[in-house]
Amino acid sequence: MTHGEKRARLFNVREQFEVSTSEFEEEWWPLVSNTWTRWGSNRLANGDEWTVFACRFLKHNESSTRKEDISSEKRRKTHPRDPNQCFAKMKVTRIAATLMVRIERYATTPDHSHTLEDSDRLKRSQAIKKLVEEEAVKPYASPSIAAAVKELATKIGIETSAKNLTRKDVTNIKQKVRAPENAILIGGPDLESDIRAAMNFLLDRSYLVERFTVLQKASFSQALGS
Fold it and tell me: Are residues 8 and 114 in the same domain?
């Protein structure tokens, strides 16, 4: 079954089916994580646990209120969407005894009132974010990464999921991925140790580093006076 077929099957659940827990978490759920949001859950005495997911367009949680004590320049611009646009729900049951996951439509809830592409436009799926993260470690600009991700998404059959990927989306994910790696370049109170750390950072990445020099304050002052 292709990624596209899996997405369609989890979008409008026509009939009950089961997959292994690992398969669901690694191969199924990341494809539609942008479509569904947790509605409610319960753990049973036998260890089974079920969760009901609602379409994100239902928007059962109220939007946060605006903080008036923040200046308009610093206030984050948001566009709250209307609630109750879709009432689709699905039920996911984790079966403890067999390590399987059962997926079914919840009660008599309807199909989605919109398309998969509408969900992709609303939010990026975990599958797309993972592709961006894998490309973000490469020394490319955000537009190039976005183009590469869209090409990869097309090859695995989830091109509509990447269609609305923006340069800003890539930049935000890239910053999160590269932050730990770039932390060593921020600097510290010990200049000489900091330079040595920077040298090791570059050497580990096959750069040629010939030497370094630390100019102390006293020497610098003397140099100015000479």
Answer: yes
Q: How confident is the model at residue 174 (pLDDT cuts 50, 70, 90)?
A: confident
Asked whether residue 99 is domain-assigned, the answer is yes
Give the count of domains, the chain.
3
Assess if residue 72 is contained within a domain.
no
Q: Characterize the bridge pairing of strands 36-43 and 49-55.
A: antiparallel
Residue 42 belongs to domain spanning:
1-58+82-122
**Cβ neighbours, 10 Å, residue 127:** 22
DSSP symbols for 146-208: HHHHHHHHHHTT-HHHHTT--HHHHHHHHHHHHHHHHGGGS--S-HHHHHHHHHHHHHHTT--
How do residues 78-128 score in pLDDT, each as one tens digit?
455 666 899 999 999 999 999 999 999 999 999 999 999 999 999 999 999
CB atoms within 10 A of CB 85: 15
d(CA 48, CA 50): 7
Query: What pTM does this model have?
Result: 0.69
Tens digits of per-residue pLDDT, 41-83?
Answer: 999 999 999 999 999 999 865 544 555 566 656 555 545 566 6
Inter-CA distances, 10 with 29, 31, 133, 135, 197, Å: 8, 9, 24, 27, 48
**70 domain residue, yes or no:** no
DSSP-based three-state secondary structure for 65: coil
Domain co-membership, 21 together with 53:
yes
Cβ 138 vs Cβ 205: under 8 Å:
no
Looking at the structure, do residues 179 and 134 belong to the same domain, yes or no?
A: yes
